[in-house]
Write a structure and sequence with these properties.
The complex is a heterotrimer of chains A (298), B (274) and C (378).
Chain A: H1 10-37, E1 40-42, E2 48-52, H2 55-61, H3 73-105, H4 109-124, H5 127-138, H6 143-150, H7 164-189, H8 192-200, H9 205-234, H10 237-243, H11 250-259, H12 264-292
Antiparallel strand pairs in A: 1-2
Helix pairs in contact in A: 2-12, 3-7, 3-9, 4-7, 5-7, 5-10, 7-9, 7-10, 8-9, 9-12, 11-12
Chain B: H1 5-31, H2 49-54, H3 71-105, H4 111-123, H5 126-140, H6 146-170, H7 175-182, H8 187-216, H9 219-224, H10 232-242, H11 247-273
Helix pairs in contact in B: 3-6, 3-8, 3-10, 4-6, 6-8, 7-8, 8-11
Chain C: H1 2-8, E1 15-27, E2 33-45, E3 49-53, H2 60-68, E4 75-80, E5 83-84, E6 95-98, H3 110-120, H4 125-138, H5 154-166, E7 172-176, H6 184-201, E8 204-209, H7 212-218, E9 221-226, E10 229-234, H8 236-241, H9 246-251, E11 256-266, E12 269-274, E13 279-283, E14 292-297, E15 302-303, E16 313-323, E17 327-334, E18 339-345, E19 360-365, E20 370-374
Parallel strand pairs in C: 3-8, 3-9, 6-7, 7-8
Antiparallel strand pairs in C: 1-2, 1-4, 4-5, 9-10, 11-12, 11-14, 12-13, 14-20, 15-19, 16-17, 16-19, 17-18
Classes of the chains: A mainly alpha (298), B mainly alpha (274), C alpha+beta (378).
Amino acid sequence: MRPARRPVRWRLVGLLAPATLLLAGLFLVPLGIMATYSFLSPGLYGGVEWEFYPFNYGRVLGAPLGDVEEFDPVYAAILLRSLRLATITAAVCLVVCYPAAFWVSRLPAPRKNLFLFLVTLPFFANLIIRVYAWMLILRPTGFLNTALDTLGLAAFAPDLMFTEAAVIIGLVYVLLPFMFLPLYAAVEKLDPALLQASADLGATPWRTFVRVVLPLTAPGILGGCVIVFIPAFGNFVVPALLGGAKVMLVGNTIEQQFLAARNWPFGAALAMLVLASILVFMLAVALRAGRANPSVRS
Amino acid sequence: MKRTTADRVLSAWGAGFLLILYLPVALIFVYSFNSNVVNMMAWEGFTLDWYRSIFGLPTQLAKSENYVESTATLVAAVRNSVVVALFATVVSTAIGTATALALGRHRFALKPLYQALLVLPMIMPDIVLGIALLIFFVGVGVEPGLSTIVAGHCVFLSSYVFVVVSARLAGMTADLEEASADLGASPWVTFKRVTLPQLLPGIAGGALLAFIISMDDLVITYFIAGVDSTTLPLFIYGVLRRGIKPEINAIAMLLLAFSFVVAATGLWLRSRRQ
Amino acid sequence: MKSTVASIGHARLDALLHIHGAHRRFATPEGGIVSALGGVDLEVRTNEFLTLLGPSGCGKTTLLRAIAGFEELDDGEILLGEQPLSGVPAYRRPFNTVFQSYALFPHLSVADNVGYGLDVGGTPRAERNARVAEALALVGLAGLERRKPKQLSGGQQQRVALARALVNRPRLLLLDEPLSALDRHLRQAMQVELKALQHRVGITFLVVTHDQEEALVMSDRIAVMQSGRLQQVGPPGEIYDRPANRFVAAFIGNSNLLVGTVTAHRGDSVDIETVSGLRMHAPGGRFAKGDRVEVMVRPEQLSLDPAAGDGPTIDGVVETVVFVGADRHVQIRTRTGDALTALQRHVAGAREPGLEPGAAVRVSYRPEGIHLMQGEPA
């Protein structure tokens, strides 16, 4: 039926052309240049020298690449710390949001919509304002310590500012809606009849949770963890404002290489490592999801 | 309905969840009216001076307590932000909508590639895209400024618009378009009189989202802004890096009020259509 | 203890479940209160097939859910033998449910769905597998163990739901509209199969349905509900022939319902006159002259055969004739103005003379074919 040679579909070409130009010119090409830079040697005053130089990666990965000279354990530690804090952030977000998602899903319809609205709204609030709010709270003379002081509990006043705890609190706060929405979608899809069926068949609430609720909401859990982990891992605003120089994450380090140290190739290499870590993380998640639900593949 | 212990725990948890979400923001609101100039977290009395000071109006404050050096810097930052957001929104809405139509109403071999490519700018950490664009713009010799910010924003805003418009498009069956064609309308007439009017709420939603995200963006802008193209988030970030002063509360409140009004309008419009 | 048993008497001994004064109220979204159960007393007998029948919203599903343990009663109690079930969570009740939506776990295979109750109950693996296989064979699904619910047809999913409940050997099997999602042919086949299955496994079945035909086909006893109250409980034949009131008469089967007054009392039977002036003769020794009565005549009790016996007759005119396959429904307007429907068996090729609309007919009936019920006082 189909003609042997399809005519050029001009309408489709026209619709796709702007996005193609945009993504190629301002996304793929810049990423490609960045990847190239990561293998060049740094110029004296910023910029690059056009010669092959694999040691940008060696500085971070060191020994495995057989490069002990340039290796500086500081950077590996920063990368590991970023991974650790992002993992903790995702875990805390999950623990906070999971019961909340159940709570919202069980509300009667009009109130449910109101609370969904209230949960979504902070997502639109300026990121920097939300971080600033926690600066107000956590500073040594901030709301928390002032409140404790007023209550006569000054002895217990913690100095949280510029600690890992502060960075985690800030990341969790900023990323909560990202965890909540996919979790809520999964919980909302959960058919209450399945929970009743489980109870009807003799399963205690805990067993019902483990055997029915958890497996059926797993896609939401995984999805939420992915979209919290990624921005937490590469974040630089939160650690810059709440972690200061004491809690350097990979995001701050990249920024430093570009704007202060002016070692662009090394900054580019760090960015490539961030991308690679995320790629590995997402592959792991996809594999787990695939194993948990083999019918998806068939 | 009988309430079980589990229900009560869940309700308490839910209430706590909302409290965590809103308490920090509420604090800014309350303390933006605090007249204590020495310790901004110790309540002393009500004042509008911080709001007055950011607009350069006369206040009771001593000159040394004024932090925003000149209202002009702030106004310039606001103007830059709005200009960038407007241009970036218009361009990315057009690109995102066209792409959504291409992927939603056509079949072609490269579709999965485009789908994956469009998601990437949204999930990639901002900083990676920021430095990639910085290297690129410096490499091709473009002077950083408002135009580079607009171009950079378009890269990821187009993806957001694409997602919102695609969702709307997926919810529309092809029936109406087929009916229009059946009644003798050319593809262009069908698009103009059937597809576009139906798609409009999705396009408006996508544009609104793009505008808010553009106004909000700090990280990517941070790397590709020029000396005199400071946007509002950049301005606030710069101030915060130097220390906290009460005026920031007032600026933050105005900015929050603005985003909440825009977001609430968008969400309200969406809920009304359902 | 002894005195309790004595006072309960024999009737309670073969009863599995007692429901006393069950009340349940719900708040409506508009802020009102609806009574889903308005004081229900019912006993479920061991090994019977009992059907709760009623229109949607009559409270039958609420009662089923209260027995299963998904709803608490506001008032009243449910006893399993001597044991009150109030406060016993669903997972500790020895009942299992076949859900209307089947509620099969989408992430588990057919075998794991069926084995779920045994798994959480700690049945040893070997016994569990044997019983799962047995249950699947019982419902005719052997060989589909590894499938996921989504890969099954609606009828197969229904059988998995049945096997999943039966495999636990519950004291009572609760079925919530079990056949409503199936198409007509499958539904009719399953009605017979369910009944046979209940016989074979020897488990008490309590079915909720709104389909009166289904109830008549399957049940040992039917409990008819309306507006949160039981209207009548009895075997299908009794419910059909001697409905307790106008609602039951109208809800089950087709019926001609007229309102009349007893005009004369002659031993076991009475003469009645309907509001329009139609005179009829019917058994009804319990009514006295002057009583208001509801008169029910099933269409199949009215004969249009001119040669039919010497019973009483009613004259009228044919209004419409509706062909429904096995029968013709002949709608007749009597001389007094009442509308009656009579049934005429369809015989292929034969066209009954005189059954054109407008033709005069004489309807004959046997007085035993008429059922009288207490009417509202005028």
